[in-house]
Amino acid sequence: MSTYPMKVALIVPPYPLEESPAPPLGLCYAAAAFEDAGAEVRVLDYLVQGYTPDKLRSDLDRFQPDIVGTNSVTLNFYQAASILQTAKAHFPSVTTVMGGPHVSFDVENTLRGYPGIDIIVIGEGEATIQELLPAVGNPRRWHSVNGIAFLENGEVVYSGRRRFIKDLDTLPLPARHLIPLSRYQALGFPVSIITSRGCPNQCIFCQGRRMVGPKVRYRSTPNVVDEIEEILDYGFSRVNIADDFFTFNRDRVEAFCSEIKNRNLKFRWSAFARADSATADLMEIMLDAGCDAVLFGIESGNQEMLNRIRKHVTLDRIRKAVSECKATGMKIVGAFIVGLPGESPETLMDTRNFAEELGIEYGYHFLAPFPGTTVKEKIDQYDLELLTEDYSQFDANRPIVRTSRLSAEEMARFVEEFYLAEVRAREEEIAKHVLEGNATDSERLYYVGRRKNDIVYQLLSKNIIETHGSLPAVSNNGDSPQELAYEVAVVLGKPLSAVEPIIRDIATFGYLKSRRENGRVRWYWTHNNKVDQLAAT
């Protein structure tokens, strides 16, 4: 066994930037686990920069890793698997590893369909990583590492079940220092954290219960708030709590809010909750600690449908919770699913009427029966037909199922009518107010934010700065953001008036910087402006 630290390249695979990407939480936990085990870790983030196989090969050549790993959700599984295949073909001696919810529940298809993938890490991966790292160079030792699967002599081998980690405080904080934070900050989306793992609910469309267990395991409040302080130090100002069921334990929520106030932390945050756990006084405590939005997974406005999907909540309880929580001033957002088992024109109308009755901001997603969910594994027991096994279609933005009484086309038409009548009409109204000069502050922020996202998406996904950010130093003012904005506007075919404020803001915050080289000005993305400033001092 070599004495030098193992080199681990962890890859953030692409998926649509329109899906509001945040710094990748699961992969940052994996990176921290590898670092804690003594590895030298490099993160290749192709989510916020354009990916090509040639770029991957070039990045790997520079780093010369021993292990190449990635994770994925169902939506970007094909891309993630293809990246590992390319890595293995380029470096046959490297060990390739994949984790995440999709492959955890589709082990055999993955290993047999993608021979470039050597090892699958099943379920919760941090403890597995600690044991796998010293054994990875010797396949005979893989049998002794619980929580993985691999091919041996053409047969799939499961090494044994990995128990869930009891004390989450033993985990190192996610290694966000390894990812290009400035690019995420330019997008403006919040950073996700978890305060617990596990979900006691039994919803048939969700992977969470099987992925992280039915028993909720908690991090200590100081441990969680330490992580938040680190995130704020990076320059972020908004956090999303991504627990499956944040409000499950009221005492913990109160302790969390108290710790935020005791440390005098000023930031905005949001969380997921169930209506049957939300009360007005709890919302007031969360509001006082900086929470400004709570998402309820309501799913349907038909009680029979809620019973069928094992939601275990009543419409009246949802009404009561929404009414009480709205009264506190908390923003309540509702999420509904179209295409649940037994869906019909009548159940969709019930959902539409119920959503309108609640008087909250809400949206629709289509059912995507992911591997590992009850609805996918027992689909024959439900009034439901899956129309495709093309996982790139599993983005919840298009119908991929039908029922005996409702076609995919009818589902799509229902949601399209909602967006035409509500969302797009509202967007057109806001744009009109902005152009007429009588928009409210919130309308103006929304309008500017949408335009900014469109341009920043293209800057990142098309590598615009990397390919067009080297400009002639024609004057003492040659490194002005205006010069870069002019170049970007030409490349994107957009008016300078739309591009310049965005480029100027990104540069002002330090996400983009420039330096002079050989008579030219080269613009580049910083890794993280605050980290870079501290390193410079």
Folded structure, characterized:
This protein has 537 residues and is an alpha/beta fold. The chain folds into three domains: 7-158, Rossmann fold; 190-406, Aldolase class I (TIM Barrel, Alpha-Beta Barrel); 463-536, Arc Repressor Mutant, subunit A, CATH 1.10.10. The protein is 43% helix and 17% strand. It has a seven-stranded mixed β-sheet, sandwiched between helices. Helix 1 (25-36) crosses helix 6 (126-135), helix 10 packs parallel to helix 11 and helix 19 packs across helix 20 (496-508). The chain is globular, with a radius of gyration of 24 Å. The mean pLDDT is 92.
CATH class of the largest domain: Alpha Beta
Tell me about the biggest sheet?
7 strands, mixed
Note the overall shape: globular
Residue share in helices? Answer: 40-55%
List the helices and strands and how they pair.
Layout (H helix, E strand, L loop, with lengths): L6 E6 L12 H12 L3 E6 L7 H11 L3 E5 L5 H14 L4 E5 L1 H4 L2 H7 L5 E3 L4 H10 L12 E5 L2 E4 L22 H7 L3 E3 L2 E2 L10 H5 L4 E2 L2 H13 L4 E4 L8 H13 L5 E6 L6 H9 L2 E9 L3 H6 L6 H13 L3 E8 L6 H14 L2 E6 L7 H4 L7 E2 L14 E2 L5 H29 L4 H21 L2 H5 L1 E3 L8 H12 L3 H13 L3 E6 L2 E6 L3 H8 L1
Parallel strand pairs: 1-2, 1-3, 3-4, 4-5, 8-11, 11-12, 12-13, 13-14, 14-15
Antiparallel strand pairs: 5-6, 6-7, 9-10, 16-17, 18-20, 19-20
